[in-house]
């Protein structure tokens, strides 16, 4: 991997999250809280990390490092803003049927055997759907998770349980 390739991954996956967090938090800190009592809130942020942000994946060093950075930024922002009634959490998707996992401009579409082999390594024996990630985001953005901040919700078909 070249330095330019490493920088590109970090500029998108880590710096992009940092820049968005900085502006979101600036705006949220300036607005009036809504709600009452312990559920009072100025806002909720849900970042997208990855299973790769929780562990290492051979040949994906830059991506893993960037997604680890997302988790670090999430935790720091959660700690720095909890007393401002702002919650910051993240999701850590596993194998999800998105173009980033199944095809891109530089790689041909993954063949069926590779997809099946990857699914077989997952305790649920399948790939996740994007809607399953949005369900997790909706949970973290709801009052049902009002006592959660700095958390990493693993949406990975059981891979976290398998790896620990």
From TrEMBL:
Alphabetized Pfam families for the sequence: adh_short_C2
GO molecular function terms listed in the Swiss-Prot or TrEMBL record: oxidoreductase activity
Keyword Oxidoreductase among UniProt keywords: yes
Alphabetically ordered keywords of this record: Oxidoreductase
Highest taxon, organism lineage: Eukaryota
Family per similarity comment: Belongs to the short-chain dehydrogenases/reductases (SDR) family.
Protein name: Uncharacterized protein
Gene source species: Dendrobium chrysotoxum
